[in-house]
Amino acid sequence: MADLEKQANDLKDKVVGEAKETYGKLADDKSKELEGKAQSLGADLKEKAQDLGDDLKEGFENLKDKFTK
Fold this sequence. Notes:
The structure is a single chain. By secondary structure, the chain is mainly α. It has one domain (2-68). The protein is 94% helix and 0% strand. It is built from two helices and no strands. Helix 1 (2-27) packs antiparallel against helix 2 (30-68). The radius of gyration is 18 Å and the shape is rod-shaped.
């Protein structure tokens, strides 16, 4: 359940970041545009880190299974 909440928060951050970036472009507000890019990038990085953690956990479980058989 916590993973689902993290994914939902990351998705929210990405959407809000993209909205800020779009607003910044339309309003010619470089500060808001960069803020949006940073927020969106942060969400992407958190998602990639979560995926990496899941892959590592799965790999260790598979390795453990090979040695316990």
